[in-house]
Known about the structure:
The protein is an alpha/beta fold. It has helices spanning about 10-20, 35-55, 100-115, 120-130, 135-140, 145-155, 210-220, 240-245, 255-265, 270-280, 285-300, 305-315, 315-320, 325-335, 335-350, 360-375, 385-395, 395-400, and strands at about 60-70, 75-85, 160-175, 180-190, 195-205, 225-230, 250-255.
Amino acid sequence: xxxxxxxxxxxxxxxxxxxxxxxxxxxxxxxxxxxxxxxxxxxxxxxxxxxxxxxxxxxxxxxxxxxxxxxxxxxxxxxxxxxxxxxxxxxxxxxxxxxxxxxxxxxxxxxxxxxxxxxxxxxxxxxxxxxxxxxxxxxxxxxxxxxxxxxxxxxxxxxxxxxxxxxxxxxxxxxxxxxxxxxxxxxxxxxxxxxxxxxxxxxxxxxxxxxxxxxxxxxxxxxxxxxxxxxxxxxxxxxxxxxxxxxxxxxxxxxxxxxxxxxxxxxxxxxxxxxxxxxxxxxxxxxxxxxxxxxxxxxxxxxxxxxxxxxxxxxxxxxxxxxxxxxxxxxxxxxxxxxxxxxxxxxxxxxxxxxxxxxxxxxxxxxxxxxxxxxxxxxxxxxxxxxxxxxxxxxxxxxxxxxxxx
Length: 406
């Protein structure tokens, strides 16, 4: 028989009546809250099962069995409802869960990782479970991830990475009574097995090559000995910072960024024609053809847009590194689209945030969001067997000594 919806108003009235009637103990076996919490948990679990069986017809209810659960208000014996085909997985109290607090904490962390504010989480818990938690309590729960964050940020890394994309993403953070911009420096890499991994998140002020130098030094201290191919944007001094720590690294400037920066100096009426001419340069079949296309661009557009020509000529060596590689490798390295795609996923989580309350709050959200995103990074890059064969030929011992035994 379908159970009646739980009456939260009656729940509160009953608690008040018991207190007024002489039940002064709130917690413990004989306390006021334990039996009331039992009614609440039984009602929520029953509601979860009802929703499940309605979605899985002809499945139906199949009684219940008692279970003892430890809570902040004492041990509570709840009735765990069952369904006929055994497919019901309760969310409030998992099948093997014996402590309510642990499950609740994980649920709060999950909501926080999805970008919900403390106020949103408070409303969610109030409406769904009738639970009231203060902002301080929620902050204490989310602070549980801080030791995990530090352990993750200091974990040992692989000796060599085949592809590395380095980029920063900016967020608003409250500091000293003001809202300022903070940069989250992210290092996304592919190891010799073709698996993606975020090597670290570093929070700093506005993006600079000097800060990146510290990031790269930290990677080295954590065990990284070599980076084969690094894709970066056109930040001044960035490539030099990489080569200062990893002298053999091949640094490729992002061509999408280069075109985007070039168009800042181009009038709207010429933008389409200039874009097409630049596209002919970086989509050339070979370096020789690309150099010819750049010469043609400089001859035609140079008198009108000398800054664009100067920029391409100054960055030419690092803009054209990808021409040294086969097509399968070229398409992986010539832009920072891979890390920018990761940043778009972070934005989906943080878009509702006007400003983070602190740098620590920002780091907690980014870490939790990253762990959820990384759960999908289970497969190697497409065509990885071919790619690793080509890389082993091109980089020789720098790579093959790390492939022994595979």
